[in-house]
Every structure is written in structure tokens, then in C-alpha cells.
Amino acid sequence: MIAAVTETLAELLAGGTSFIEPHQIDLERPRDRDREGTGIYLYCYDFRACHSDAAAGDGVRGGSTESDCSADEPAEGRSNLGNVLQWFHISFLICTWGFSALGQLRALSELIELLSQHSCLPEDALVASLRGRGRLPLQMATQVEPSALWHTLGLPMRPAIYVTVQIPVGGESVDLGSLEPDRLQSDLPPLAAFS
């Protein structure tokens, strides 16, 4: 599932920018090294459960709400969101390599513009193994401790974008149309309260 979310984001970034081809996306952790050419790092640095009592303070921010991202149902009115065991946040660091300082800022600006157009990853943009889960919330994180993250990576801090995707894990497919509205509200997992 982490690989599938990473692949979906890589395809979104490669298809929506003027400067990135798929072979220019490095999924390894960022490092200081001499490289030929230019590209971006798309590094998954965190995977954690989204607990309903802590969801409001998780540091994820954006224009998405539960109604924005849960409105799309998978084909034939079925969803595997009705009996989900757990929701998880998968967090990514996006930064550049091989650009001049000004080129790096231009590239990050283009990535921010692209990502800000997507409060959710639409079902048709998901790789095959993620389809059937509906749209997945995509947020640019605002309360990341960047200095601690860069220190852990053993690198000096540099401009970067921090993105979090929220994804359901487990559960079984449930016909949402057969549930009564009161039961539907209590059976669906809570999404993070985005401010």
C-alpha cells in the first residue's frame, strides 16, 4: 500500500509538471551527492495510524473535508470504506536535486501549484491496487518539524514540500446504499478534522 501511494504520487508529479519525467523521480532518501541532471526526491518518511481523538491536531492542513473526499463512491455503489479497520497517514518529503538555488525554488513553486489543485487523489488517478477506496485525502502538511527531519537524514535543511495522504487499511467491501443514514454515519471511519 505504501508503494502504491508512492507510485500514484510519482505519476501525478511526473504528469503534471513541465520539468519532471518519471526517470527523474528518486524514491530514495535525500542525500548530498553529485548527480547528473536534475530531478526530485519523493521520500516516504512517516506512516502512522490516524486516531479519531487526535485527528484534529495531526498537523495536516488543507481545503479538504470529509464531504470533499468521501463523496465519490466506487463503481456500482460499493465501497470498502464502510468497515475499515484503521485510517493511516502516509507522509512524504518532496525536494529537488541538481537545480540552482533559483531553479530549485521555481521547481518547488510549480509542484506546490500542482499539489494545491488536488485536495484528494481522485479514484481514476490511483494505481490499480488502490482503486475501490474512493478519493484519498491529499494535504500539504504545515506542522512538520523540518529541522528534526533533516537532522535525522543527516543533511542541512533545504526547501521542501511535506505531503500527507490519508488511506484506509483493512475492512471489507460494504454496499453503502443498503445502510440506513444513522448507521452509515457511525460505521464510516472519521477523517481528520482539517482546519
What does this structure look like?
This protein is of the alpha+beta class. It has one domain (2-27, 39-172, 180-187). 26% of the residues lie in helices and 25% in strands. It has helices spanning 2-16, 66-70, 101-116, 146-153, 181-187, and strands spanning 25-26, 39-49, 60-61, 78-79, 86-97, 120-121, 136-141, 161-169, 174-175. Strands 1, 2, 3, 5, 6, 7 and 8 form a seven-stranded mixed β-sheet that branches. Strands 4-9 form a two-stranded antiparallel ribbon.
Brief overview:
This protein is α+β, with helices and mostly antiparallel strands and 195 residues long. Helices cover 26% and strands 25% of the residues.
- On the 0 to 100 scale, the average pLDDT is 74
Count of beta strands: 9
Uncertain residue ranges: 53-68, 70-80, 173-195
> Termini separation (Å)?
27 Å
Structural class of the secondary elements? Answer: alpha+beta
How would you spell out the order of helices and strands?
HEEEHEEHEEHEEH
Percent range of helical residues:
25-40%
The global form is globular
- Count of helical regions: 5
Tell me the radius of gyration.
18 Å
How many domains is the backbone divided into?
1
Please summarize the sheet with the most strands: 7 strands, mixed
What fraction strand?
15-25%
Strands, helices and their partners?
Elements: H1 2-16, E1 25-26, E2 39-49, E3 60-61, H2 66-70, E4 78-79, E5 86-97, H3 101-116, E6 120-121, E7 136-141, H4 146-153, E8 161-169, E9 174-175, H5 181-187
Parallel strand pairs: 1-2
Antiparallel strand pairs: 2-5, 3-7, 4-9, 5-8, 6-7, 7-8
